[in-house]
Design goal:
The C terminus is likely disordered. This protein has a single domain, classed as START domain (Alpha-D-Glucose-1,6-Bisphosphate, Chain A, domain 4, 2-Layer Sandwich). A seven-stranded antiparallel sheet has the order 1-7-6-5-4-3-2, covered by helices on one side. With about 170 residues, the chain is an alpha+beta fold.
């Protein structure tokens, strides 16, 4: 049976030239995210930091005419290895980030299966799924590239490119 066009499954692997601890430490600086990424607004962290029970709130505005209000509950955090989370709001579903040492750097693996819950988004996905997927993938690509630039600007070494062929639908 085909999966609903309202669901986005994503799996990606991205290489960074900094160790997992450096990557984790930079993720802890959520107060910088809105300045880093134009597609993110109203970002705030509720809780003590990257720990189970903390909640991230924000509005995601991809390069298509809709915005999504989301709440990300951190279910499990193992420094500097893994974050398991559940996304709620205009997107619903599980997500995870796994950081693995790779020589002097890190391979970051991300995965999520989220369902769009806004009626307008669900309708658009039925008729323009490729456009919705393009918007999603563009936001992911911009996020990773912007994150690499920020790591370099804030003291991390220049990051490596993506693991060829590894990012994309899963």
């Amino acid at each position: 049976m085909a999966r609903s066009t309202s669901v986005i499954d994503y799996r990606g692997r991205f290489a960074f030239a900094v160790p997992p601890e450096t990557l984790w430490t930079s993720i802890e600086h959520g107060e910088r995210f809105e300045a880093w990424w134009a597609w993110l607004r109203e970002f705030r962290l509720e809780g003590p930091g990257l720990e189970a029970g903390a909640v991230l709130h924000g509005v995601v505005s991809p390069p298509v005419p809709y915005a999504m209000r989301i709440r990300v509950e951190l279910d499990r955090c193992v420094r500097p290895e893994r974050i398991d989370a559940t996304v709620h709001g205009d997107l619903e579903g599980p997500a995870c980030l796994v950081l693995e040492p790779d020589g002097a750097g890190t391979v970051a693996e991300v995965a999520w299966t989220v369902e769009m819950t806004q009626r307008a988004m669900r309708l658009a996905a039925r008729f323009a799924h490729p456009l919705m997927r393009w918007g999603h993938d563009l936001v992911v690509e911009a996020t990773v590239n912007g994150y690499r630039r920020q790591l370099a600007a804030t003291g991390g070494s220049d990051a490596a490119g993506p693991d060829p062929g590894a990012a994309g639908p899963g």
